[in-house]
Amino acid sequence: MAARYARSSLCCKSVSKSPSLTFFGAAGEVTGSCTLVETEHARVLIDFGLFQGAMSQEQRNRVPPALDFRRLNAVVCTHAHIDHCGRLGMLPRLGFEGPIFCTEPTATLLPMVLRSSANLQKMRVEEFREGTGPDAVVLDPPPDSSLQDDDRHEDPPVLYARGDAERVSRNLVGVPYRVWREIVPGIRMRLHDASHIIGSASVELEITHGASRTRVVFSGDIGPSGETYLAARGHAPEADVVVMESTTGSRPIGTHAPDTDASLREVIEHCRHGRRTAIMPTFSVGRAQVLVHHLAQLSREGLLDDIPVYLDSPMAIRAAELCVQHPTLLSGTARAMIGRGHSPFEFDSLHCLWSRKHSLKIAGRDGAGIVLAGSGFCDAGPVLHHLETALGHDRGFVVFTGYVLPGSMAESLANGVAKRVRINGTELDVRARISRLQGLSGHADADQMCDWVAGSGHVPGLVVLNHGDDAARIGMESRILAAMTTKVVRPACQDTVALA
Ligand SMILES: [Zn+2]
Prior knowledge:
The protein is of the alpha/beta class. The protein is 29% helix and 22% strand. The protein folds into two domains: 10-132 and 156-251 and 444-498, Ribonuclease Z/Hydroxyacylglutathione hydrolase-like (Metallo-beta-lactamase, Chain A, 4-Layer Sandwich), CATH 3.60.15; 260-437, Rossmann fold (3-Layer(aba) Sandwich).
């Protein structure tokens, strides 16, 4: 397909009635994913995720995008990560009760994620008013006010209730991968496995306008290539316009991911010889399955026989079960194990913790062990009481894996900067040993992203870089322009990109 977008440009929405994309989040940042696809006759929203991070970011969630939700025809959700789906629960109150298309595994995960998010919002505001909320603050050095404002005079936002989450869940439409589906007259859709988390998808839209057809691909979050627990993904489908994430774009060319298994072996040895318990803050959907899958492999080598591993996140346990229910989406090795009647996410020393009671029981445990605990950002969830018991002790051991949100306590700890913290009202000097494992990202690295868009040999007429900070987007732009002759744009939030 020839590139047809030589004249594509950033422009004001009101200028053209041509198909267009308007970015309402995750444009020059990594949360709040939300893009409107607009034609003369149809409006489709791709993702509606939460802004996350400092309180000023969270407060942005209160203000919905400047669009008439009652005139939306459909919503498509790429995957069940909160920064892509977390505001879907607002849709009924905003006037949209139409279909929300996603893959079948995502349609199973989303009700759990949205219910959990609604419960968390309710709990946070109640705790805030009672002064009993979880707090996790770096006291020394004081946080960079430009990144982390701790202005908690306003209630945390309550965007929707559990009832809204239930209503939205009834509108989910699970669609098989690789099957064309007309989602609104003039726009048909096909989902492609993105191998980022179970059920994750890139979205291909074919938009008919007049006598023309335009194909637009939204990458969603793209998983790494190489051996993971998920099936290998393909390249970007042929399209006129590719909208792609660039989260990892700033990594210098030529650097390679470290050996994850070797790093995990070191953690296990340190636990064994030091008789320490490693606390690993973990995202429940994605990172937790990556870690458990790696640990299961090491267990089969006999490395974990004497080391209990605690998975302290009911959502992570359910996500692993969902993986097993969809073996065709898993790697050949994982599929073969399931075929033999074994789960690739289970091993003898793994203990799944379903309740806060069980979680509290193992907090502060002595002896060799590993605790995988949500949440990865260290701002809520069971990880806080594990950190509270571990950080202040010389024998504490905390291992961060992959991405940490800039300005968060997790970042300050992971970078070895935090000297004194307050967790749930307890002030602690940080004495624990802190490590950071690289190479466990659920995102393709910059070279892999470039290969994803350029690897098929087809050159899109326009590449739009959204998800990623500016350094990452500029790095990704350089890579893409070195690989192929195309046009690359980096829209800001609220910008509209005309497609013709
Ligand atoms: Zn994601």
